[in-house]
Amino acid sequence: DRSAAPEQAAPGGQVPPETGAPPLNQPRLPGSVEIVEGCRLPVLRKNQENEDEWPLAEILSVKDIAGRKLYYVHYIDFNKRLDEWVTPDRLDVKKLQFPKKEAKTPTKNGLPGSRPGSPEREGVRAASPATPVPSLPDSAEASQGSNGTARRLIPSQPGRKRKANCGGGDEDSQDSSDGVPTAPRMTGSLVSDRSHDDIVTRMKNIDCIELGRHRLKPWYFSPYPQELTALPILYLCEFCLKYLKSLKCLQRHLTKCNLRHPPGNEIYRKGTISFFEIDGRKNKTYSQNLCLLAKCFLDHKTLYYDTDPFLFYVMTEYDAKGFHIVGYFSKEKESTEDYNVACILTLPPYQRRGYGKLLIEFSYELSKVEGKTGTPEKPLSDLGLLSYRSYWSQTILEILMELKPDNGERPQITINEISELTSVKKEDVISTLQYLNLINYYKGQYILTLSEDIVEGHERAMHKRHLRIDPKCLHFTPKDWSKRGKW
Ligand SMILES: [Zn+2]
């Protein structure tokens, strides 16, 4: 949590002993060398226990504000969401390493983002099988982004029109009625190929988003129009997700915007929870604006400017003012690889309250109606994997614990049967059974053994899981998109 790292001069006592105390605000450098992009050095930050630590960081950018330098740093072994601007007094310049020829941050599979040594990964290992969530970092159950592969990015549209005042356009400027959506920046195309991951897309560019009664602090870059990135706050209409550059513009918009819920069809309602199904072709502007918002919290995720091939399922919570967006997932209309989720996100104000698992549960209820098994698109983000593991574990244990002995014999079930009952793809059933370490081989056959620890852990976890999808409240008829010709 970057708010835990105050941007003030570190008292001398907080400096590691071997470095001595660097003078405040003016790092003394050997000779007159300058700290430039690509340099690495230890940088002071607060860990989760609010203690000082000096992890190695890479300088991604330098800016000069009224003669005072600020450095944008990426902590090498940490998730990008912790990247931040720091003052010079937080840099341990005595350990400065200059950029080598290939000074790019090494990443696994050439993908930016979650690195093997990140705290989230350690959370996975430390978690006990039946309750895989407790030892998570603060942002756990957060964004379950799965990576979309690079595809169908439409070319940039340089000749877009711009008008004065509110966000570079009139009230309809983000509508696709003219076929040319203003806005999403096409530079830094968000493909998963690292070679396209330029310095711009490695840096958070939006400081704060106001969405209804929430203020959100983005974690990652999102390609909102450049002229909006200098604003202290970007204002979004919480219902149509249109972005506006000032409160005044938002208020003016709200007098004209009649939406009090996402567009599309409400296909589920129970209590205050609803789901809306939105066609990325029919509601292109909304879908693009949703992707822009989501990108703020998803790292290695492709932004689909061409939203036509996707459906968006937006979960809302109702109150007297309307249906407020809580999270969403996207899904290809046709998937040749049994994907039932492309990207999935719970907005930060709603994280760690069971909504992420509710989204996942809903995605499998859709697959059940379709009579298919499904799996989220790979690779999953660090946090996404945690949420899915937890969902799969609980879902499979629920099935296993309901099995009754058969004529005094051990109950039997096949992997296929578990998969059909849950719509969880076979591979994910197997990996979950392995992860839970339930499989034993005994006298020529496989036996699943549920230890007391597993059973107790599962019961505790299910006791806490209040939010559930009620299949009776789902009103959904799958469409056969392959018979519809062009999307
Ligand atoms: Zn609106």
Automatic annotation (TrEMBL):
Enzyme class, broadest EC rank: transferase
Catalytic activity: 2-hydroxyisobutanoyl-CoA + L-lysyl-[protein] = N(6)-(2-hydroxyisobutanoyl)-L-lysyl-[protein] + CoA + H(+); L-lysyl-[histone] + acetyl-CoA = N(6)-acetyl-L-lysyl-[histone] + CoA + H(+); (2E)-butenoyl-CoA + L-lysyl-[protein] = N(6)-(2E)-butenoyl-L-lysyl-[protein] + CoA + H(+); (S)-lactoyl-CoA + L-lysyl-[protein] = N(6)-[(S)-lactoyl]-L-lysyl-[protein] + CoA + H(+)
BP term (GO), one: cellular response to oxygen-containing compound
GO cellular component, one term: NuA4 histone acetyltransferase complex
Keywords: Acetylation, Acyltransferase, DNA damage, DNA repair, Metal-binding, Nucleus, Transcription, Transcription regulation, Transferase, Zinc, Zinc-finger
Residues of the MYST-type HAT domain: 201-478
Positions of region (Disordered): 1-30, 97-194
Active-site feature positions: E377
Subcellular location: Nucleus
Organism domain of life: Eukaryota
Pfam family, one: zf-MYST
InterPro entries, A to Z: Acyl_CoA_acyltransferase, Chromo-like_dom_sf, Chromo/chromo_shadow_dom, HAT_MYST-type, MYST_HAT, Tudor-knot, WH-like_DNA-bd_sf, Zf-MYST
Enzyme Commission numbers on file: 2.3.1.48
Gene Ontology MF, one: histone H4K16 acetyltransferase activity
Similarity-based family: Belongs to the MYST (SAS/MOZ) family.
Name listed for the protein in its UniProt record: Histone acetyltransferase KAT5
